[in-house]
Amino acid sequence: MQIVGVSVDPIEKAKAMAERTKTDFTFLSDIGGQLIEYFKIWHHRSNKHDIAIASSFLFAKSGQLIWQNITDNYKIRPRPEEILAAIDHHHKKEKP
User: What's the pLDDT tens digit per position in 28-48?
Assistant: First the structure.
């Protein structure tokens, strides 16, 4: 499994965020917002630049979306147990 963070920030800002938060996963830059547009997760703000709604996705190796969590409140994130349960559920479905 690979964890990736995606932001509309330039790569320099994404790299600084990774260093500041001491994360051990990859941050990608989606400056043009292609992923955000694809998943329709724009958070339009009246006085600032548009950003993505707080979102988490799990994809199977095949590229199939197997789980998602989308919220307007960036402080509400999925708990690790929720993510692990979604992974476990997917693995059980894959077994013959």
Answer: 888 888 988 898 888 876 555
CATH superfamily of 4-94: Glutaredoxin (3.40.30.10)
Give residue for tokens 């402080």: 75
Distance CA 8, CA 32 (A): 7
Q: Which residues of 52-89 are buried (b: 16+ CB within 10 A; e: fewer)?
A: bbbbeebeeeeeeebbebeeeeeeeebeeeebeebeee
The answer to whether residues 36 and 52 touch, using CB atoms and an 8 Å cutoff, is yes
Residue/partner pairs of 50-59 with CB below 8 Å, 24 or more apart: 50/8, 51/8, 52/6, 52/7, 52/8, 56/83, 58/83, 58/86, 58/87, 58/90
- Only one residue has tokens 């993505």, namely 52
pTM: predicted TM-score of the whole model, two decimal places:
0.74
Query: Is residue 45 classed as helix, strand or coil in its secondary structure?
Result: coil
